C-alpha cells in the first residue's frame, strides 16, 4: 500500500471516529436532559477534541523514522 493511501485511509478512520464520538456525546447530553442547542454544542466540542487529538497523534507518528 502506498504512503498516500495509508494517509488517506487513516484520515478517513479518524474522521469516522470523531463523528461517532460526537454522535454519542450529543445523544448522552440529550438523554441527560440538555436542550438541543446544548447537546449540539457538546457534540461539536467532542468532535473538535477527538479531531485535534488524532491530528496530534498522527503528526507524532509521522515524525517517527521509518
- Strand coverage percent: under 5%
Count of DSSP H/I helices: 2
Number of domains: 1
Q: What is the number of E strands?
A: 0
User: What's the story with the biggest beta sheet?
Assistant: none
Give the helix/strand class. mainly alpha
Mean pLDDT: 91
Shape: elongated
Provide the succession of SSEs.
HH
Radius of gyration using CA atoms only: 15 Å
Detail the poorly predicted runs: none
Give the N-to-C terminal Cα separation.
Answer: 15 Å
Share in helix: over 70%
Task: Write a brief caption for the model.
The chain has 66 residues and is an all-alpha fold.
Helix and strand arrangement:
Elements (H helix, E strand, L loop, with lengths): L2 H29 L4 H27 L4
Helix pairs in contact: 1-2
Question: How would you characterize this protein structure?
Answer:
The protein is mainly α and 66 residues long. It has one domain (3-62). The protein has two helices and no strands. It has helices spanning 3-31, 36-62. The protein starts with a helix and ends with a helix.
Keywords:
0% strand, 2 helices, 66 residues, mainly alpha, 85% helix, single chain
